[in-house]
Design brief:
77 residues; globular; mainly alpha; Guanine Nucleotide Dissociation Inhibitor, domain 1; single chain
């Protein structure tokens, strides 16, 4: 599983659309700053679960991929 946006683009483990969603997710995570609400994309991270956050980010960037949501949730737990 790729660990950043550049690895997502190069990964043979995912198709083109999955690569794009994974890249967008990694960029969201890398740009997130707790003190800058603009980077939160409207998500209150004190009230949402990891699964909800990943689903939201994937949905915002070209519809959620169940595989990415499940893999990321497993990795984060």
């Amino acid at each position: 599983m790729p660990s950043n946006d550049m690895e997502a683009l190069k990964s043979p483990l995912m198709g083109l659309f999955e690569k794009r969603r994974a890249r967008k997710f990694f960029i969201y995570v890398q740009n997130y700053r707790e003190s800058v609400p603009k980077t939160h994309e409207g998500m209150d991270l004190t009230r949402v679960t990891t699964r909800e956050l990943i689903a939201y980010v994937c949905t915002c960037f070209l519809a959620a991929s169940v595989a990415i949501v499940d893999i990321m949730t497993q990795l984060l737990h």
